[in-house]
Structures are given as structure tokens and as C-alpha cells.
Amino acid sequence: MSAALHRCETLVIGAGLAGISTALELLDQGREVLLLDAAPRSHSRRPGQRCLRRHAAVRHARAAAQQGAGFAAAAARRLAARGRLRARRSLGAALGRALCRAQQGGYLRLAAPARRELLPGGAMGGARQFRRWQLAAALPRGLGLRARDRPDAGPADVRARQAELPVRTSGAGAGTRNGAVVGRHGRGPEGDFRIEAEHVVVCSGGINGDLAKVRQHWDPLYGPFPENILNGTDPRADGELHAQVQAAGGQVVKLGRMWNYAAGIAHPEPQYPQHGLSLIPSRSALWLDATGRRIGPQPLVGGFDTHDQCKRIGQLPGQYGWQLLNWRIAIKEMAISGTDSNPYFRDRKLLRLLWQLVTGNRELVRWLIERCPDVLAAENLPQLAGKMAALAGDGRLDPNLLVATVQHYDAGIRRGPSLYNDEQLRRLQQLRQWRGDRLRTCRVQPIMDSGGGPLIAIRTRLISRKSMGGMLTDLHSRVLDAQGEPVSGPVCSGEAAGFGGGGISGIRSLEGTFLSNCILNGRRAAQAIAGHATNT
User: Fold this and answer.
1) What's the CATH fold of domain 4-119+127-204+468-535?
2) Is residue 210 classed as helix, strand or coil in its secondary structure?
3) Looking at the whole model, is its pTM more than 0.85?
């Protein structure tokens, strides 16, 4: 049986933030767009559920030619206007204006800081300024993901439904002609398919969903490759298109630069091998090594220099650590990265979110204690030490050293703020001077506090997340060959391009920069395609 053939003007591979931004820009310029993703259609029913990473959506902005040029132009304007209106209504007024500026000016300026990361010495390394809950739903709605369900959907929407296929199943690959990437082929639930396009934009993500590739490109800066590493990225982000673009002559660079996390835990409900969750590590917890000794001499504190945390955890015996805290600290400070684990953010339930910030996230902590093998709880330290030793199973934990470490830290707290000479205590005082951090940081308190509730230990490991390198691109998001010349065919944006230029953010990027780079480079890719069409 021959593969079903679909032709389009512009094919965007990957419906994440970069892919959606590229598609929006192309639609604004009157281009026909086919947006293709590996996930099934069911993943697009709740926009933002996976933080824009896996929305299977297809949209043709122009109606079929037989409906007449006048109808096509009117339909395109109507769909774009409705998409923008829905996007603006889904945002707060400030963020809505910021997104409009991002669309018009090529940058993203978000209205309010939601969280920041500090570098050693207290310097704020470029505040992470992003608001996740509203953005997660805005761009998919702006693109018109729900347009296919409208009763007045035109012929183009019907055609889109027929072409909507998962892209990366068995036998998928880039389509080439005379060495140029011109489309995509693969196998979906309805059989083999092939897509040919005048222009191809690769926004397929990085390599970090494939732990074999993570091992291949592992930088010894983080110690030897950890056999206990967790996977915090969808396995479909496997770097397959990197290899195929490379085979077509494009350069792929700096794949050893990764943005991983040091506070990974096993997922209580794993969907694939070594599936992990990335904790936003508690600031007030003691971070210990496998023996029960505090990691030092500079203490490891959550929210300060993720890059350094990964280096230090990766070079510890056993390549894991323990966060030790009590119930009161956990319900105030414990959180998990990602919209799936933060439904009040995802669904924009402001009042419930504020109540949770004030009273603590008891539901999350109970769920982790009951379901996650890496989260342990006990009424006293000797019992907890026994559980920790049993879980580790390597004989490294010294219960007496663990008790001495906690007692020494608590004694320093009881001396009072005027005598604090512990770096972690100084940082906690600093964090609580800023409103955003004060909401999520406990008042300084002993770990073994009589009113603190059960003691909790969390085994933390490295978890694979983002690729900081990728396809080498120029300022127009065109993939470059070994001579620095654009490769015939594809342009590239987002994580697949190392967030631009094969690694625009460097090795110590702050996470807030990923967002703006996806939008900036998505717009540059769309402008390059539109300019090519104008010149030809």
C-alpha cells in the first residue's frame, strides 16, 4: 500500500512553544501552515497541559482555492482575529500586552517575576521572569487549536483533520530531494504517510528524551555518566531529526551542553523507563551526601545555581544526595516542576493557588510520601535513618553522622539570628526579603522541631531535561553546513537549535531565557521563509 501524500506550503515539525510561535508568525503573514507533532490528537484537548510541548495540531489558514480568493482572504483574517482575541482573553491584561509586544517586536517581556535563581554570593543572575499558568493556554488558543470543532469551519479545517497524523512512530524520517530536506514521512494509525512542503521548519526538541544519546554526549564536568539518572523528558524528544539534518549537510554542535537538574526523584506513576520528576528543591532542607554528611564546604541550597548543583551531585559517591526536612517545611516549600504537577497554575485558579501558597501543599506532600519510592517519612531520626539505609542499599549511610549533622545545624539556629554564621541560614534570610520568595520560604526553623511534624528524607538524583546545543543556525534560523553556508531546505528553531545558533544561551543559561529565545527564533524562521517567498 502506497503512502498517503500530503502537500503544503510550509511544514512545521514540532508543536511546542517554538513550533507554535513559528506557525503564528507565518499565519500572520498569510502563509499556509501544516503543524505536525508526534503526540496523538488527544493530547491537544487541554491546551497547556504539558506546557506547550506535545500538542498535536494541524491548521491551514487559507481556505481551499475552489472557494474563491475573496472567501479565502476573509476566512484567514477571521480565523486569525478570533485566535488573537481568544489569546488575549486568556491572559491577564499585563501579560496580554507583553505577548503582543513579543509578536510585534521580536522579544518577550513578561509582566511579573514568578521565580528567580540566584548565583553564589547572592548575585541575581538575570531574574527568571515568566508567568507559566496563563502562557500555557494562550499560544495554543491563539493558533486556533479549537477551530476544527467550530460549526463554521471551512474546507481547510476538514483537510487539516485528514492530515493530522502522529509523526514519529515506526519508520519516520525527513523527506529529501537532491540532498535538501523537503518534507516528512512516517507511519500513523491510518498507515504510512508522506508530506511534501515548499519550506520545512524543524522545531522537534532536543536529544534529552533518549538516555543513550545523553550518555553518548555526557560532559565529564558532571562526573561519570550516572547509571541512576532519571528521564524528565518525553522519549519522543530523541534527536532523530538532528541526525537526519546532519546527513543532509547541516551542522549539529554542542550536544554535550545540557540543562539537567540535581533534584530528580522517581515518578510515582511512570509512563516510560526511568521516568522521573524534577523537584523544585526546598531551600530550608539540609542537602546531605550518601553518608549523611552535609554537602559542603559551601552548602547546597535550592534555588541557587542549578548548573553547580548538577556538578556537585554528579561527583558525589553514588551520585545521589538526600534532602532532609520536616513536614512543616515540606508543605510550604516542596514543589514539582511542570504544569501537570501544578494544576492551579495550569488551570489559572488564582484563589486556590493563593490559598495553597498560604496554607501549604499538603496534598502533594502526602502523595509523594505514599507513592514515591524516593520520599520517606518517619517520626524520629533513627527510624528515618533506617529507611534511608534500606532504600540506598549500598551501606554508605552512617546513622550517627546523620544525627550529629542535624543536631549541629539545629544548634546554630537556636543561637538566634544575630549569631547566624551558616551560609544556608544567611541565604534563607536573604530570600525572605523578596516577596516572591517569601511566599515559598519558611521562617528559619530547626529540622528536629517539636512542632514540625514527621521528618522527611528525599533521595535526589540527576534528571535529564533540556539540550543546550543543537543544529547550528544563522540569524535567520537557517541551518548551516560545515562551510557556514545555509543548507538547502530546512530552517530550525527552539530546542532543536539549542534555542538558537546551536547554543545561544551558553552553558550557564537561566531557564527564563529559553522562553524568549523560542519566540524570537521562531519569528526569525518565519520571516526568513516569508522573505524567501517574496524574493522568489
Assistant:
1) FAD/NAD(P)-binding domain (3.50.50)
2) coil
3) no
